[in-house]
Write a sequence for this structure.
């Protein structure tokens, strides 16, 4: 049990209470307001960045979203992580109802806000936090709300994230395996930091209460079954599942078994700390000619197999801020000068594996220069791209089974894509 909270507060940017739900009568709005005002006055202190603060027998846990602070207070020894997660779920529910959570949206919808909080927390204990389920019996239209006579089945059955009676003429499952590669390379070509953040994103359009089973090329599972992996297997680490996944089943036999929510959701996210080589390598060289002209030479090389192709490649190369009148030539794609960024942006629609392309740009410099030139702080080269049908980790969906008591046929669709996350190459 997470432990009960005494009160829940929604405060404005100055710490004044906008909404207050009192569950146990032992933490007042004035008490919380004074504490929070004192806290935001210490902006910049290490304590101000701590989401959990203990003061005079009360534990305050809070997060900020736009110009609203969400805070719960408790006099019990409670699970802070659980209640912080609850506050994030409150944000998601309010965004579902109001498009965005801001002070103005709260003031315009006080009645709806209190109705939602009544359903989401009871006597200080978190209850229902699925926006789709809440919207079935708390309906809003601008400033109006209608409450149905009885709650939906999802509130009373064991599967709180899915309603009963869902029906589709065509039963389909779409699964996207999306990986973002974050990489930082110094000017000597050494990889300083690299990791891969992945997500299994699902969209389910299934009737009834389907039971889904998903298999991956998980090394732990294959070794437990006494089988050697054909091709590449992976070590799953730092995994986070959607609440629909049966964790006990996964811990026992590594089977991902679940009854999915209706529509779109993230089934699983993961992170791999791996020394991945840069998939697209860029070299840039600047030559100065008689202080009146500079030449920029850029070479981009794809370092993945020829059967894969990167799409929507964008290479942003910093240039001196006083460069003007550019003349640009490329062997592939289009490049343009972006003066507001002091950068050259080179776009390549399709970049096959094992290929190399060149870009050359000539810039004029002002004829009058300062006697003491202050060296500019050079920004790194930033790269964006997408590679369909490719993953850095080598993760593979071995099977995706859907079983439902009516026995209908399901069409599963699986896609793989790798994209650039925080992808930077330093020049100096």
């Amino acid at each position: 049990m997470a432990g009960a909270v005494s009160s829940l507060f929604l405060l404005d940017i100055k710490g004044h209470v906008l909404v207050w739900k009192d569950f146990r009568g032992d933490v007042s709005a004035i008490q919380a307001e004074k504490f929070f005002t004192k806290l935001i006055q210490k902006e910049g202190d290490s304590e101000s960045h701590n989401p959990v603060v203990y003061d005079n027998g009360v534990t305050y846990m809070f997060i900020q979203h736009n110009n609203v602070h969400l805070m719960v207070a408790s006099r019990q020894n409670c699970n802070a992580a659980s209640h912080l997660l609850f506050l994030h779920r409150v944000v998601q529910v309010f965004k579902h109802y109001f498009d965005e959570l801001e002070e103005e949206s709260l003031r315009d919808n006080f009645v709806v806000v209190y109705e939602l909080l009544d359903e989401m927390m009871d006597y200080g204990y978190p209850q229902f936090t699925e926006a789709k389920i809440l919207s079935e019996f708390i309906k809003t239209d601008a400033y109006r709300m209608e409450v149905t006579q009885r709650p939906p089945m999802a509130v009373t059955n064991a599967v709180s994230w899915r309603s009963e009676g869902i029906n589709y003429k065509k039963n389909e499952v779409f699964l996207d395996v999306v990986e973002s590669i974050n990489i930082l390379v110094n000017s000597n070509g050494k990889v300083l930091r690299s990791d891969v953040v992945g997500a299994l994103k699902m969209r389910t359009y299934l009737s009834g209460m389907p039971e889904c089973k998903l298999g991956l090329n998980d090394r732990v599972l294959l070794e437990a079954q006494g089988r050697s992996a054909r091709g590449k297997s992976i070590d799953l680490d730092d995994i986070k599942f959607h609440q629909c996944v049966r964790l006990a089943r996964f811990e026992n036999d590594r089977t991902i078994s679940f009854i999915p929510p209706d529509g779109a959701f993230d089934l699983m996210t993961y992170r791999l700390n791996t020394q991945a080589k840069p998939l697209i390598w860029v070299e840039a060289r600047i030559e100065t000619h008689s202080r009146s002209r500079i030449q920029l030479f850029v070479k981009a090389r794809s370092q993945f197999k020829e059967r894969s192709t990167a799409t929507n490649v964008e290479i942003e190369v910093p240039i001196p801020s006083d460069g003007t009148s550019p003349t640009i030539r490329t062997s592939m794609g289009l490049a343009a000068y972006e003066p507001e960024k002091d950068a050259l942006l080179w776009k390549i629609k399709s970049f096959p594996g094992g290929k190399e392309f060149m870009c050359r740009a000539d810039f004029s410099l002002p004829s009058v220069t300062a006697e003491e030139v202050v060296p500019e702080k050079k920004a790194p080269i930033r790269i964006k791209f997408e590679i369909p049908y490719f993953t850095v980790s080598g993760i593979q969906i071995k099977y995706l089974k859907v079983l439902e008591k009516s026995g209908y046929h399901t069409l599963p669709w699986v896609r793989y894509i790798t994209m650039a996350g925080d992808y930077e190459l330093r020049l100096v």
